[in-house]
Each structure stands twice: as structure tokens, then as C-alpha cells.
Amino acid sequence: MRAVVFLAALTVCxxxxxxxxxxxENWTLKDEQDLRDGYxxxxxxxxxxxxxxxxxxxxxxxxxxxxxxxxxxxxxxxLGSMCNVSLSEADKSVVPVFPPREWPAKWFERDDGVTxxxxxxxxxxxxxxxxxxxxxxxxxxxxxxxxxxxPGSKIVLRKGTFHLSTPLELTPADSTLIISNYPGxxxxxxxxxxxxxxxxxxxxxxxxMNVYVAxxxxxxxxxxxxLRVNGRRVTRARRPNSDPERDFFPKGWFDTSTATKWLPAHxxxxxxxxxxxxxxxxxxxxxxxxxxxxxxxxxFSPPVSYWCQKSPPGGGGFQYxxxxxxxxxxxxxxxxxxxxxxxxxxxxTGAVAHVWRKSHWSSWMFAVDxxxxxxxxxxxxxxxxxxxxxxxxxxxxxxxxxxxxxxxGEWFFNRDTSQLFYFHNASSGTAPPADLQVEATxxxxxxxxxxxxxxxxxxxxxxxxxxxxxAYTYLSPHGVPSGGDWGLERLGALxxxxxxxxxxxxxxxxxxxxxxxMLSGYNQHTVLSxxxxxxxxxxxxxxxxxxxxxxxxxxxxxxxxxxxxxxxxMILNNVVRETGIWEKQSSGWFQAKSxxxxxxxxxxxxxxxxxxxxNDGFGGGNDITENLIFNTCRESSDHGPINSxxxxxFLTTVNGGTAGVIPLVNEIHNNFLVSNYGGTKxxxxxxxxxxxxxxxxxxxxxxxxxxxxIGCGDHRSYNNVHLYLSTxxxxxxxxxxxEKYADQIYNETWLFGTGTADYIQLGSGCQDSATFRPPDxxxxxxxxxxxxxxxxxxxxxxxxxxxxxxxxxxxxxxxVS
Length: 817
Hints:
single chain; mainly beta; Pectate Lyase C-like; 16-stranded mixed beta sheet; 14-stranded parallel beta sheet; 10 helices; globular
């Protein structure tokens, strides 16, 4: 795939065509843009034919990558409503095959080990399990049999749903195990507990209400943090009302103006600061490894963070804190504007407050301790660790308050009485039907594959399985992976630690309330391929290495030379959509303290935040290529579809086999990237400290041409096509440090269609010859479809491109049309 191919495909676009109007009978752009302060599927001022052309092209590319993705991609691209483009009969006829038939067929030819068949409906654990006619009933029983038989065994699951009461634990004794579905059969492994034989009684069926209650006989020991009705996630009683799967910000949130005061942070005492270095001198910034231990980071696990230093370097850096509560405008919060009026809450036991961090960089969850109705104040202690930066709160909502059970589809579970209350979506007095399928989420982890670096689990393959309904993890302990902006829980529905050559292939992870897959610590040559992730509460796939951040006064926190981290991970041809239902600081792929990952051929869209996040430089050597990414940052801001940081230098042996802090170059190339909604910082947002990136041959729509945060260096941006971008290159002249690490931008094709049309934006320092080191730009082609002439902005200085060329002698070969 070459960017020039995509450019040729869009030559039908004419910049003089009329802008798509909100008066068009087929599409109301304003409805989408109003969702988030003007964010929308396209920026203002973009012609209709261009909007439709890139969407058709994206659909064509999705068809090449994953033909079975086309119906959902077509819907997400708004091709029907915006462009009157219908799905072809050929696209409609592509039905996803639950397993790839060729993989199980080869496995069935194996004669080593044993094969255990498992049937949730017709099996019995007393059966041998060795034939399809004599299956076991539970996967745990089959695992015990394969472990006894030895290497080369298989567990084959027959059609149906397996509800796990405890996680499936795999150890090094299970190496070479294969777990698959029976060819052609649909199999689901669920972390939810089915609630059978519920006897519904009316509770409140007056004045438009239709709330019924049922006793839950077997609720003891069940987490009961989420509910599924007929397989769909339904809403725990909340205010303001919202459906988390159909709505996104601002619907369902109190506006930040309702919070009259954020209460001061709890006092945890001072942090013990650790400073190592300088250990890296490339850009003149982020040379030190620094953290704070304890103090305000006491709630993190482990209690250490880059952001717990008193003065952490970085854009807008300050020591971590979160509010201990909020005082709100009761008249507004309890007004009809947010639904039926209930007045002050009578009982907030078990309530959870969801709060956006200011600037929408992350969302926090707090377990509410108390509510003061006279002052309309909520108090909390536990929580706020779901993002690492801390700061003041913003928009918010509250859930799990019985008094707010007032909308169809809402539910509440009373733990004291073991009663489930449910607002059935029907006319008042209509009870839930007897065949209503109701399940309570219970397990956070479905399969736990854990070995050690010295004795890893090897060659385990999971294929053709559907996984669903893991319980939320947003109030479980979180840690700060490194110097990026993230807080993260070391949990996943599929959890890997201490593994080699493990595979998850052609599987579905659906409606997980936490992370989908977590690669923790030592994992080498993991393959995640051809999977589907949808409606995920937090991050779809994450990799997070381990360094010793605590012992010996934290002096080894930056030492990754022991290899206890994910390496050589292959993330291939997955489809990730509807991510960040609960935790907004989430993504399709996240990595920290990991190296040499390959992301190729993935389709990622409809996310609360960025699609790909690289939290640090660590060993580098990542390759991100041939992916289709759009509709990112739908609920947040200040990001691009792909985002990186590198504020902490880590010592690894990745680059050359000897210990060093200079990572391998990361390549981001040949991707189709759309910077719409709030992902306006361009296809690749190399934020604070990011070094050694080669971004090339990408096809990018909207946003910025290349964004480099402070302290960045050695970015080579070349052969990219950027269409209807708002800003070109944005960087800082006075942070480049060594000359050999200066940025390079060449052979780029940039069409300005929105915004300022600034070709280059540089920070202060243009007058200071000692620090003035602009990027090495040359041979770029600039087109302008705005009323503005492309300019170079250097601090307060502004000049045309030709004036810039004449004054500095730079940018040779660059032309403006």
C-alpha cells in the first residue's frame, strides 16, 4: 500500500464544491458535531465530495484487510446516511466464519497428546471426553485430563455457552495446549453468572414506571457489577440517564458547570523522590529517570509514578492529585433537565462517581463514601487512579443509586436483600417475560496463562472462541506504567504473564467491562491475529513490562535489561471497535515497557480516545503499518489516532544487544489514518519526549501534518500524503539538543483545507541563534484550499513560505500551489 495510490483515488475531488449543509435532508452534521463542542466526523468547511470520497476509499481498504468487517465499517463511516452509498450484495453475503477452518483441520490431524471434547449442554464430567459422543461438561475437567496426558493435547469446545465460575488457570504444565471450537460451531466462554428462574414481581408500575423486582437465590459470592439482558449490556441506575453503548459524551454527563467546588485531595504525606541520571542526552529534555514513591501515589499499585515527583517535566506537569469529593449545584443536578426529579439521594452505599479529568485526558471512577444532602456534597477516598496525571475534575455522573432507577433498561441490585430491580422496557404493568436471559458479570479474568521467565508457558493456542461479559476492573488497583499519561490495571479477560509463542487467533472478545487481553511482564513472540473486539469497557489489547521500581530505594526502576517485558508481539488483522465504554483513557492497542511490537493490517475505530498508545520509548523497534484507523477521540481531546510519549529513559539491550538508553527507530508507515472527532493532532501525535520515529508513506485525512511535543527529536516524516489538514508541522526549536537528532520533513504532500494553514509552527527561540534549530525540511509539495496563505510561524514571527526560504535558506525544493 502506498500513500500515492490513495491520493490518485481521490483526484475526483474538487475543492470548489459546496460544503455539506446542515439543511441537507439526508444528513444533519450538526447533530454529530454538537456531541462534543463542535467535534464531528469531519471538520467544518470540507466539501461533500471529499467527505464521501475518503469514506469510500476507507471501505475499499477495509474490504481488502477484513472482508467480514465491511458491514460494521460501512455503518461507522456513515456512508449510507451521509453519502447514500449502500452495501453491495457481495458485501452483505460475507458472513464471518467463527473459526478459520484451516487451523482446526490441521490440529485434528495431530496424534500426540489427547483430545478432550467439551459440551456445556450435553456433556458430563464423568465422561471420558475423548470422543464427540462422550464429551465432558466443563472446560476445567477437560484441562485436568489434558494436563495428565501431557504435551500436544487439545480441548475442543462444542456449540454453546460455557459460564465459568472460576478462571481457567494455565501453567507451564499446559504448554503446547490448543483450545478451539469444534469446526463451524459457535462457542462462547462467559464470565457472567446466569440468573435462572427469576420470579418477577411489580415494584413500581405507576406514572410511566415499569420496575419489577426478583429475589436472587444464588447471589452470594457473585460480583454483580454489571448486568446483561438477552446478551446486551444494560445500565446500572444512574443520573443523568444514558445508555453506555448507544450514547457518548456529552449525553449522560453533568456539565462541568454543575460542580461548584472540587474538594481538596486527601493527605498522604510527601513522596520519596528518585532521580537517576542524566542517562540520556538527545534533546536537552527528559534526560533523567525520575519518580515519586508513596505520598500522593499511595493508592497506585505499586505506589510509584513519574507524576508523583514535585515538579515532573512535561507539558503542564505538576505533582499528581485528585479531588476527594465534589460540591454540586443541587437545583441544577436534580432539575428536570436531567430527567425525572427525585431530590436529594437517600442512600449512596455502593455508588460510584465517574469524573472526567479537566481537558478530557482521562476519566476517573471513585467509590462514594458519603453524601451530605444539606451541602450537596459527595465524598470519596478510593479511586482516581485510572489516569496518571491527576488534576481538577470536569464533567461527571453518578451510578448505582437506587433512587435513580427511572429509565427503561436500568437496574439495581440490593446486596442486603439479594433483590434485583429492573426497569423492563415495555408499557407500565408489563412484566419481564419468563424467557428473559439475565446474567450478572462476575469474573474479571476468564483465562489466566501464567508462568515465569525462567519457566514459561509455551506454545498455547486459543482459536475460534468467543469470550464475553468479564466484570469491570475500573475500581481494581491501577499502576502507572511509565512516563506517559496512563494509569492502568494489570488485568485482562485473557491474561498472559511468563509466556512464549502463545497465540490468540480468530476469536471474539465482546462486551468485556475491563481490558480484553493483557500481556504482563515476560511475553515473547505472542501472536494476536484475526480477532474481533467490540464494546470493551477499557482497552482491547495491552502490553506492560515490569521493572523493579521499589526495592533498593527505587534505583533500578529504569533497568529493563533483565528482559521481563513483552517483546516481538504480533498484532495482526484484528478489528477493534466501540472501545472505552467505561474507562475513557483506553485504546485498541497500548504498550509500556515493551519493545519490537508489530501492528499490521488492523481496523480500529469508534473509540473514546486514541487507537494506539505507546507510553514510552523503552527499547523501541515498533512497526505500525497497513492499519485503517478512524473515528478516534470521540469523547476526548488533545490526541491523534496514534499517540506516543517518551519522558523516561529506560535501559535495555534491545538496540545492539548491549545495555543502553537509545531505542531502536520506531516506524509508522503505510497506514490509512483519519484525524476526525477530537483526534485533531494529526495521524501521528509524537508527544513529549518521543524520539527516533520514522513516519512515512502514510495516507492521512484531517488534523495536523506532524506534531512533536516538547523534548522530541529525530523524527523523519517523509512520503506522506496529508489531505485537508489544519496545521502542518508543529514543534519546538529550542529542544532539539544534538544536531544529528533534528527533525526531518521531506517529500511530503500537504493539502490545507481547514484551520490556519500554518505550514510550520515553531515555539519561541527563532531570534536566538544559540537555540534556533528548525526542522530539516525540503522538497515538500503544498496545496492550499483555504482563504489563508500557508505561512511559517516562529514564535510571534510570521512569514510566507517563500519569505522563510529567502530569509533562512531552508526548505529547498518546497513549492506552494
